[in-house]
Structure formats: structure tokens, C-alpha cells
Amino acid sequence: MSYMMYVLLFGLVLGLVAVASNPSPYFAALGLVVVSGVGCGVLVSSGGCFLSLILFLIYLGGMLVVFAYSAAMAAEPYPEGWGSWPALRLMVGYVLGVGVAWVFLGEGWYEEDWGGFDGLVGVSVLRGDMVGVSVMYSSGGWLLVAGGWVLLLTLFVVLELTRGLARGALRAV
Amino acid sequence: MAPPIYSALIISLGLGTTMTFASTHWYLAWMGIEINTLAIIPLMSQNHIPRATEASTKYFFAQATASATLLFASISNAFLTGEWDILQTPNTLTSSLITLALAMKIGLAPLHSWMPEVMQGLSLLNGLILSTWQKLAPLYLIYQIQPTNSNIFIILGLLSIIVGGWGGFNQVQLRKILAYSSIAHLGWMILIISFSPPLALLTILIYLLMTFSLFSSFMLTRATHINSLATTWAKIPILTMSTPLILLSLGGLPPLTGFMPKWLILQELTKQDLAPIATLAALSSLFSLYFYLRLSYAMTLTMPPNNPAGTLPWRLNQQHNTTLMALTTTSTICLLPVTPAITALLPL
Could you list the residue ranges that cross the membrane (chain B) (predicted)? Predict the structure, then answer.
């Protein structure tokens, strides 16, 4: 189990490095998809299986849509992958940075228990993450309304930003 | 922009700051800050010119980085200490990281690089919202952190005062000058926040008054460059009297209001046995005073080349509503004698 966690976290860091090394959007969005998938695996290993499921459906689903659209918009004949020299040197740099951070700050993070979602509750019928969702609908009160309003606001923001069409500057093509 | 969307964005600006002000949990405070960032982006790029879109993009990058750092630091704090309460942030590594994240949010040196170029791309009204309203929520969080070690605040403050002065030296664009002025004033505010939070509150209130007056004066004539400022004398002569006074108040000259926070801060720093820091701060403010003086000089003491038609405009019935601007301008110029009353009322 600890090996599984190790593989998942390794994939997480590698995926983040792959995004941050600035390749063509084809590959960077692929890195994002990999990161969200592997992140869901990390969540499962920490005990938050419901949250992981929801994240997989909503976030990864959305990320796949982002990947598809960025692949469509950033189509170029010779995309710059991770083998090109600028992206490769950034990748190596970031991996070295992670190594340095591990050496200095990694005390106590190897083979230690991260603490699961149920924490101090002990043995209980109520799971931490599932109850959280239902609590937001019952005792969450105005926070539920605020959450819904922010989602609507995000829609307005995106619609307003991409409204330019011919007179905007958001697209270079 | 369609009125329903415009109202939704303005309401969300208010909602975000209110949420941060009303919260004791770090997560809710972060939520409020994110709502503010989200709501102001379309307001910034509403005229759809490339420069404004560039400014919104840069603003979004800077604020997203700072928000991510803030969330990371508060979650790490909860992981290490089990405490989500804002007032109970123990002085660990995470407290300093939270301070740095909030400092990047409001544009303190050395995390200030985004500020001048973002301000330059915005219209004057958006610049006003950026330098007044958007600063309130992060400043309130910094106010509540209640640190025990003042080193980080002194470094941030001194660097901001120096950068705010030195950076504005060679600028001719008014919005960049206002950005550097904001950096310098927030530097004064954060310098004193660990010694006397009420004084920091006073500094930020007086700064809000002064900057509102200055922005309003610039908005009346839509001046964005020293050249357009210099031809204001023909259009609205009263501004050539009031704007230099506002500028000198921003520079911190007695007998104007802007002297009050600087004076009280220098006094407090001396009482805390930090006289060299007080001296350095006071001397660095001279940089800012130089470019405020240059603006006043260009406005009042020069008559730049102008065509004859520009020197005698028709006096038509203008539709400006200058009530609030008159109130804040008067406060910017005349509030210094009230200092004893304010000092007595401060700890409230």
C-alpha cells in the first residue's frame, strides 16, 4: 500500500513538472489530466474515497474538456514536446529543485502516516467527506447560497471575458 | 457591459470583501479574496482593448499565485497546529508564509512588480477600485495575524517605501505614479502594524481618502499623462489649486493631513527604540515627495504649449457629481488639527 502511495505521489510530482516545464499546450494539458487522475488516487489512499470519486468525475471531466479545447485551439504542425531543449532543461531544473526541497524539508515525511479523513472521530457510521457534503446542505446555511452564487459569478466572468469576438484581444488567431 | 452582469460583478466585489471581513476561518477568508479577484477581472477588461486584457491577465496571475500560497500556508498551519482560526495563527513558518502571500496580494515590495504595469492598463475608475477596495480584505487579514516577531514587517515596509519612491522617479504616466505611491503608502502602513495596529488602521484610512481625491481629480479631466495634467488649468481652474494640495498631502507635508500618519508612525518607531529605521523611512519618503512635487509643478507653475482654442474653453453646464470628491479633498487638506482627537479615538 505504501508502494502504491509512493507511485502515485511520484506520478503527481512528475506530472506537475511536466506542466510547469512549458511545453506546447497539447502536452501541458495532458500533464494536467495525469495530475488530476493521480491526485484522485492519492485521495483514495488517504481515505477520502467519496471526495476522490467526485473529483474524478467533475474536475477530471472538466480537465478533459479543457484538454480537448486547448488541443483544438493550439493546433500546430510541430508541437514542442518534453524532448526539446528549453522544456527539458526546465524539467531537469524542477526535478533538482524537488530533490533539494526533499533533502532539506523531507524529515519525517517518509513512511509516516498522513492521517486519514476520519481523523479523531474514531469508529463512526458517518464518513468525513460524505457527511461534509450533506452538512453543507443542512447546517451550511448561507454558505450554500454563497457557493451557488460564486458558481454563477464564474459563469458571468467567463462569458464576459470571452465576449470580444472581433473586437477583443483574447485570441491571437 | 450588460447591466445585470455589471451589477452581479459589483455585488460580488462587495460580497467578497464582506465575507473576508466577517470570517474567523482561514478558508472562508480565502474564499472572499478569491471572489474579489474573480469579480474584478471582467471589470478590468471591459473595454476589450489589448492593453486592458494584458493588465487583467497579469493581475490574475499575480493574485492567483498569492491566493494559492495563502491557501497552502493556511492548510499547512491547520495540519501542523490543528487551528483554523485566523486570530490563533501561532507564529510558525506558516504565519510568515501567510504574510508574504498577503503582501503579494496588496503589492508590497519585493512582490510589487505586477502593480505598475497592471495599473497602467486600467481605466482610472478601475485603477481606483484596484488601489482602494481590493486592498481592504488582505489588509484586514494582515491586521488580524497579530505577529510577535516584527522583522518581516519592517523589511517589507522599508523595502516598499524605498521602492515606491525610487520606482516612481522617472515616470510620466499618472497611473504608474499612483501605483508606486500605493506601494510606498502601504509600506508605511505595514511598517507600523506589528507595533501599533491602530496606527496602521489610521494610515490606511488616510491613504484611502487621499488616493480617492487624487483619482477623482484625474477622472474629472481624464488625465493620464503629465502632459494632459498640465493643460488642466484651462479646463477646471479650481483643480490647479486643489490637486497640488492633495499631492503634497500624499507626500506627507505639514500642515496637510498626509503628515498625520507619518508623524505618528515616526513617533511610535522612536518610542520602540527603532530610530535608525524611522530615519531611513523618513528619508526614503523624500523620493516620493520629489515626484509629487514634479506633478504639482507641472500643473500649477507651468503653462505648456497649447493651441489658443485650448486655453479658453466654453464654460458649459457640466454633469460631474463632485460631492464625494469635495468631501474627500477637504479631508485630505484640512484634517491635521484633528490629530489629538484621532489619537484619542484610535484604540477603538
Answer: 6-28, 59-80, 92-111, 151-170, 177-195, 201-221, 233-254, 274-293, 324-346
| pLDDT mean over B280-298 | 94
Closest CA to B261 of B341, B192, B183: B192
pLDDT tens for each residue of A139-159: 888 889 999 999 999 999 988
Which residue of A146, A156, A163 is in closest CB contact with B19? A146
Rg over CA atoms, chain A: 20
Q: What is the ipTM of this complex?
A: 0.86
Determine the pLDDT at residue A173: 46
pLDDT band at A50 (very low <50, low <70, confident <90, very high): confident
B-chain residue closest to A170, CA distance: B53
- Ranges A10-24, A49-63, A67-81, B169-183: which has the least confidence: A67-81
| Torsion-angle region of B312 (φ positive above 0: left; ψ -120 to 50: alpha; else: beta) | beta
Q: Is B50 on the interface with A (CB under 8 A)?
A: yes
Nearest partner of B296 among B260, B249, B340, judged by Cα:
B249
pTM score? 0.90
Beta bridge partners of B117: none
Residues B95, B89: contact at Cβ < 8 Å?
yes
> Residue A97, Cα to own-chain centre: how many angstroms?
20
Measured in degrees and rounded to the nearest 5, phi and psi for residue A155 equal: -60, -45
Give the closest-approach CA distance of B131 to chain A in angstroms.
21
pLDDT at B203: 95
pLDDT digits (tens, 9 = 90+) for A58-102: 999 888 888 888 888 878 888 888 888 889 999 999 999 999 988
| Interface size, chain A vs chain B, as Cβ–Cβ contacts under 8 Å | 48
Could you give the CA distance from residue A100 to residue B175 in angstroms, rounded to a whole number?
41
CB < 8 Å to B35, chain A: 150, 153
The CA–CA distances, whole Å, from B198 to B152, B209, B285, B342, B348 equal 19, 17, 21, 10, 8
For residue B207, how many other CB atoms are within 10 A of its CB?
23
Query: Which residues of chain B neighbour A167 with C-beta distances below 8 Å?
Result: 48
**Measured between alpha carbons, how far is residue B299 from residues B215, B288, B293 in Å?**
15, 17, 10
Compute the mean pLDDT over every residue in chain B, rounded to the nearest whole number: 92
CB A36 within 8 A of CB A59: yes
Answer for the pair B188, B137: CB distance below 8 angstroms, yes or no: no
Q: Does B336 touch chain A (CB under 8 A)?
A: no
Measure B35 CA to nearest chain A CA, in Å: 7
- Write the pLDDT tens digit of every residue in B31-40: 999 999 999 9
